[in-house]
Design goal:
254 residues, mainly alpha, Tetracycline Repressor, domain 2, rod-shaped
């Protein structure tokens, strides 16, 4: 049985922290490359420590998975928290969004485990997730007050967009460069100046509709009487057949 933490000297505690960090780093890489089926013994070899060291820190693979996931979420939460007081809240918000989306596909196996019903999310992951959500929520509010993000966007919307964009990113480019499709989805969050609505011609105060209307109210050119304008067909020019005949005779005589 290992000694309790209080009985360990400073050197032992330093070694223990270093070993734990090595195991977590090796597990992060192994889970990303091989999935969660990789054994603890293989992770121990990659970390350069004995299997007993891994089991002392993480008695089960579930404990190691939880620690790796907590570490990743806390890293993103710190990344976001470091930008809470940025001079440009909008740029800070979208920078965090891009980092979350671009860095997640390499951790898809862990994300799949967390989203399963097999006892997840566990307490540490829930706590880290709450910290991350709270920080992203603060960034969102700051960006909205700055006029960079649409006012109708909620934290739930942002988290849903993360899920969708990660899927786009994973299928198109599983590295840390944001793909065009994910960038276009993020752009939908941006606040934009509303374009002028399409209106009918001639209704604006400065409009100049030069198209002649078929329902003009000019009189008959022969007698000056009102001309009935039909709603369909060719517009009438004369008030009656008699005036039309007079106009014909005048043109002929001319």
């Amino acid at each position: 049985m290992s000694a309790p933490p209080a009985a360990l000297g400073p050197a032992s505690r330093t070694d223990a922290r270093r070993n734990r960090a090595q195991v977590l780093a090796a597990a992060q890489q192994a889970f990303a490359e091989q999935g969660t089926s990789v054994s603890l013994a293989e992770i121990a070899r990659s970390a350069g420590v004995g299997a007993g060291t891994v089991y002392r820190h993480f008695p089960t693979k579930a404990d190691l998975l939880e620690a790796v996931m907590q570490q990743r979420i806390d890293r993103l939460a710190r990344f976001a928290a470091a930008r809470l007081n940025a001079a440009d809240p909008g740029a800070a918000f979208f920078e965090v969004c891009a980092e979350v989306i671009a860095s997640t596909p390499g951790n898809q196996a862990l994300c799949d485990i967390v989203q399963s019903d097999d006892g997840w999310p566990r307490a540490l992951v829930q706590s880290a997730g709450a910290r991350f959500n709270r920080t992203v929520g603060e960034l969102l509010v700051a960006a909205q007050r700055h006029g960079a993000v649409r006012a109708d966007i909620t934290l739930g919307d942002v988290l849903d967009i993360f899920t969708g964009c990660v899927a786009i990113q994973r299928h198109q480019r599983p590295d840390r460069r944001l793909v065009r499709g994910a960038a276009l989805v993020l752009d939908s969050l941006r606040a934009t100046v509303a374009a002028p609505a399409v209106t009918k011609p001639g209704v604006g105060p400065d409009s100049h509709d030069e198209t002649p209307s078929r329902n003009e109210t000019r009189g008959c050119p022969i007698c000056g009487a009102a001309v009935h304008r039909p709603t369909t067909g060719r517009p009438a020019r004369y008030c009656s057949a008699a005036c039309r005949q007079k106009a014909h005779r005048r043109r002929t005589a001319g």
